[in-house]
Design brief:
The protein is 24% helix and 16% strand.
């Protein structure tokens, strides 16, 4: 039997956690094993004005509920006009949709309900070192995800999202204080030590210089002179300018200037994704070749169309999980690669380094220490865990990445057994509602290639995980990302909530609130939010906030980008009913 607590009890406890009782650490690149091996010449900050820290913000007042301001219930950034480069502006709100596939929506529930949980999901932040030699931008003609015109601004974009969350007065449906943020993977893009440092500093607070290699200038595809990429500071009529992209002098200098993150005002937890675990997000880790490539001085920026198509086919279909063909191709084209400044901070991080960085006190922020991980996880080489969402709700974070390579996922046998036992223990002793978090979706967990470190262990698919979760009625929701698309699916006894990324338009995060309606049903409310940056970008404003606005607008115009990522109305702002009689 679930122990239902009054909303007032939850609100006071979570308010104390969310209102900044713990001072955020500065996180100035002091992570264990990260940044210490940077060449001395690269230690100097990029030229440009010093960052201006945002003005202190008082703890948000408890709102009247429901409320819409600051969320997509109030307004949504919307492209104006047709064809060419389209400017963004304030657009129509996304209304809340009630979905009753799993339980009836009884009248009067709004006046009866009590809040069980109120928190935020970030997913697929993809903080990216755009100058890394490990990147395969030369596949842009094959896939829009290989290179995006907005990528150089991922750091100010994520900081603006953090500012938005800090300013929210509570859950839009209940008004209950937001008690934590959960990131559901792909926090980094290239499995890079430097990107991991940027992510941890952004979340916990501090200064970030989103530059690598030469500390004085940008070295990447956007000043390569190649028409395949948008050259913002050049008169070259590249492919993107021919599609209407502007010329923006000073863009690249602004993109590598130091910025300041206030850090989240509330505790946050971390879930791992394939871009966090695998070089390039798809190759099995551990090969010294990827470290040599990432930290070296040669960056391949173009590839013949036929070879690019072959490489992308191998990535897409998982034909080269260990990267053997990829290595041969890069070796063959080494003489055609651009010479860049090497940087040891770009090295892929190991699982141990990932855990050690999360456990570093420099990135503790408002807590919890380790952000879900503990010293035991480091000892056991384990990236899955449980945590207390509230007295009535248990959180379970899974590791769905596949160490054998490829961007699809699965669960190892040992983790599946742990999950079964965790769910059984909860039913026998606690009787709490359960929310499960992972990076991959049910549809994208289909890689059953054995883990090289555990060759005899069976890997399990998303279909098997859904079957297991359905067998345990305490499970209310499974919250994930990876697909970069809003998609909500009923699974008989629980809801699978997949949320769009924060690198591709419309660049969203999701507020999630769980309530007991006191009538045998629960409601899982989800509300999408954008960053705090203005909807319309100002080409003359290259400040930290201006870059965040430009980050969104460029993403809305990225050629070949998918236009279905916002999902349907029933995948966005919703009330999801669950039967708990």
């Amino acid at each position: 039997m679930s122990r239902i607590r009054s909303a007032a009890t939850l609100d006071r406890r979570t308010f104390l956690a969310a209102s900044g009782a713990v001072t955020a650490a500065t996180g100035l690149g002091l992570t264990l094993g990260l940044g210490a091996d940077r060449p001395a010449a690269a230690a100097t900050a990029a030229p440009g004005p010093a960052p201006v820290a945002p003005e202190p913000v008082d703890a948000p007042a408890v709102p009247r509920v429901p409320y819409a301001r600051g969320t997509t219930l109030g307004s949504v950034a919307t492209p104006r006009g047709t064809g060419g480069y389209r400017r963004l502006g304030d657009g129509p709100a996304w209304d809340r949709v009630v979905r009753a596939e799993l339980a009836a929506a009884h009248r009067g529930r709004a006046g009866r309900r009590t809040t069980l949980a109120s928190f935020v999901q970030f997913t697929d932040l993809h903080l990216v070192d755009v100058q890394s030699p490990l990147r395969y931008e030369y596949l842009r003609a094959e896939t829009a995800s290989a290179w995006r015109p907005q990528e150089a601004l991922s750091v100010p974009g994520v900081i603006s999202l953090i500012e938005r969350i800090n300013a929210l007065p509570g859950g839009p449906a209940t008004g209950s204080p937001l008690s934590f943020v959960m990131t559901t993977g792909d926090n980094t893009d290239n499995n890079s030590r430097l990107e991991l440092d940027w992510f941890l500093t952004a979340m916990s607070g501090g200064r970030i210089t989103p530059n690598s290699g030469d500390p004085r200038r940008y070295e990447g595809v956007q000043n390569s002179g190649l028409p395949l990429y948008w050259q913002p500071g050049s008169a070259l009529r590249d492919a993107d300018k021919r599609a209407g992209f502007p010329r923006l002098d000073g863009f690249l200098d602004a993109a590598i200037r130091t910025v300041h993150s206030p850090g989240l005002r509330m505790p946050w937890y971390s879930t791992v994704g394939n871009h966090d675990s695998l070089p390039g997000g798809c190759y099995a880790p551990g090969d010294p070749f990827f470290t040599d490539l990432a930290t070296g001085d040669r960056k391949l920026e173009t590839l013949p169309a036929a070879e690019a198509a072959t490489v992308w086919k191998a990535v897409e279909k998982g034909l080269d999980p260990r990267g053997a063909d990829f290595k041969r191709l890069l070796t063959a084209h080494a003489k055609k690669a651009r010479t860049v400044t090497p940087d040891e901070r770009r090295a892929p991080f190991t699982r141990a380094e990932y855990l050690t960085a999360h456990l570093d006190p420099a990135h503790a922020g408002p807590g919890p220490h380790g952000h879900g991980y503990t010293a035991t996880h480091l000892t056991e080489d384990r990236l899955y865990y449980t945590f207390d969402i509230s007295d009535d709700v248990l959180g379970i974070s899974l590791d769905t990445t596949d160490p054998a390579g490829h961007y699809t996922g699965s669960l190892g046998g040992a983790q599946l057994r742990w999950l079964k036992e965790t769910l059984r223990d909860n039913e026998r002793h606690a009787g709490r509602h359960v929310l499960v978090f992972s990076h991959h979706t049910g549809k994208t967990m289909k890689n059953t290639r054995p883990d090289p470190a555990r060759p005899h262990e069976t890997r399990h698919t998303g279909a098997e995980l859904i079957e297991l979760l359905r067998a345990h009625p305490a499970v209310v929701g499974w919250i994930n990302g990876h697909s970069h698309k809003n998609d909500i699916t009923p699974h008989g006894t629980f809801w699978e909530v997949s949320t769009a990324s924060h690198i591709d338009f419309p660049q969203l995060a999701r507020v999630i609130e769980l309530t007991d309606n006191q009538d045998g049903t629960l409601s899982l409310f989800t509300t999408l939010v954008e960053s705090a940056a203005p909807h319309r970008a100002d080409f003359g404003d290259l400040s930290q906030t201006g870059l965040a606005a430009l980050y969104r607008e460029l993403s809305a115009n990225a050629p070949q980008a998918r236009t279905d990522l916002a999902g349907e109305p029933g995948d966005r702002n919703v009330e999801l009913l669950v039967d708990r009689r």
